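FORM 7B - TANDEM STRUCTURE REPORT

SECTION 1: FIRST PROTEIN
SEQUENCE AND TOKENS:
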Amino acid sequence: MAQAAPTSGGTARAGRTPDIFGARTHARARIAISVVTGLIYGDWVAANSRAGGPITGWNLLTGLVSAFVFAVVLWAVMTFAPRLRRELHAAVWAAFAGISFGFLYSATGEAVLRSIGMALAVALVVLILSFYRFYTREDAAGHRVR
């Protein structure tokens, strides 16, 4: 009986395409994605907070701090959330998306209650979509089935 040839990322699993990247490459990609996305988010927060006005030092500081916090939390979510059960995994992504969007929306100067409502709406949509995704691709223990 022939066995699947191992790839650089591990052995090929039945019914799945083999992972050609190793754990080190995935770890670096998680960091790169977090940093790039954090920089985009920080720029967006800074642009929203200045509302088309001049760029100031406080505006830059707000953007840099937002970018740093977003990147660190995104890295943590991408690293640790997959270890959770699918319900908590979906809830963590929903909370992250809702809080991120709510802060971004509040930087525009809108009312706090409107920002909270928009954040809850985004979190609910992300919760439904991510739970569906995890429910259809993982078993109850969190192991991927596809």
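SECTION 2: SECOND PROTEIN
SEQUENCE AND TOKENS:
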Amino acid sequence: MTHDLVTALRPLLTAEAAAEAYAAGTEAGDLEQAVWLRLLERLEADGPPHDPGQWLRRAVRAEARRTRRTRRLERPYPAEPADDGGDPEQLALAAARGRALRAAVRRLPGRCPRLMEALLAPEDLTYREIAGELGISQGSLGPERSRCLGCLRRLLPPEVAAR
């Protein structure tokens, strides 16, 4: 019984939904889906409608009106809510590069690990602050930094060092 009703109503529903969708600001498939759901709910609660074609036309128009009302009340976000600054794949790759960099910094010789950590610190320390923290002269910080960066380039995988 239900299968016959669905088969009989499918062409009418497709045509009605296509006619109402544009004015409702929605896709015809979305209207069809909503009406099929209403029909299933109706069949479960009250059985099949007396005049299925008439019921279907009224249901399509009612869904179209509901969709128009909803669209008027809803406001789009200026940006996607989950748009927190990046593609998850890019964030994961950046995190992996950061981990590789930190691991390579820990393997550097001498004072280089402390110097590189100071240079990479989020506080963005000045050369004077870094020299004071490491107990070396500010003038020797530049050459020391160059030597440490050379060692770091040799330790890093090519895909991390290139950045």
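SECTION 3: OBSERVATIONS ON SECOND PROTEIN
The two ends are 66 Å apart (CA to CA).
The chain has a mean pLDDT of 86.

SECTION 4: SIGNATURE
Preparer initials: ____
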